[in-house]
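Sample intake sheet
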Amino acid sequence: MLATIIDRTQESFSFVSMISPELEKQINFIKEIDKLKYIQRKTRLFNSDRHENDAEHSWHLCMMALVLSPHSNTNVDMLKVVKMLLIHDIVEIDAGDTFLFDTKKNHSNTEEELLAAKRIFGILPKDQAEELIAIWEEFEAGETDEAKYAKAMDRFEPMLQNASNGGGTWKEFNVPYDTVIEKKERIKEGSQAVWDYAKNMVDDCLEKGMLEK
């Protein structure tokens, strides 16, 4: 019996010794970002009462970016776009979700989010951490073609959800038409075609009473 325990202990130590520090950090990061599945957003799933979580949102945006890529204003690096969309909300594990139409908390990049990015991505090996922080900061700045297209997807998805839910958060939080246009028209910086569709959709929602002027 004692010999069996010793053998199993040795096997355990052997397993631990086989794990490189780099792999251990990467696995710890993977475990940490599982928390993204618990961050609830204000928007609801299409034709549903269930609220979307951040992980679902990120996956959906990646699929949208791939499918709608022919409508990007420029020829973008799709791998970088997908990376942006996969990681852009990871900071909300610490900082929480900020609703675009929140009148109390600014939706722009905050010191709180930067601290979250450094902590969470910092779990990874140094080179990967630096890469993902840089990609996250590029997305937040919204100045490159990739960031503009990624942000267009991020702004467009909730519009589709709201239109499918009788106005969704627009109606729930009494968001007027002009505010929706003001907050969403930057979609055209990444895709004029998607913005034309979105604008027509919002106009239709206004006519149907889902929005107020």
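Comment: The radius of gyration is 21 Å. The first helix runs from residue 2 to 18.
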